[in-house]
Write a structure and sequence with these properties.
single chain, about 60 residues, alpha+beta, 3-stranded antiparallel β-sheet, about 15% helix, NETI motif-containing protein, NETI
């Protein structure tokens, strides 16, 4: 991964749209997306808490 590529994670109290706006404001364009579940152990069993969403951004040419 080059230094011009950064992963942006949608924060817990942030919408996807807000994350995309933050990426654009920092000068990055979306080139990828990944999701993975976040689990917490309750009574010895994994319980899903939320989905972690990340966007891969490439630095825009200036």
């Amino acid at each position: 991964m080059s230094k011009n590529t950064v992963w942006f994670e949608v924060e817990e109290h942030e919408t996807i749209s807000e994350c995309l706006d933050r990426m654009k404001a920092e000068g990055y364009a979306i080139v990828g997306r990944r999701e993975q579940p976040l689990f917490k152990e309750v009574d010895g069993q994994p319980v899903p808490i939320r989905q972690i969403v990340q966007f891969k951004g490439d630095k825009l040419k200036e």
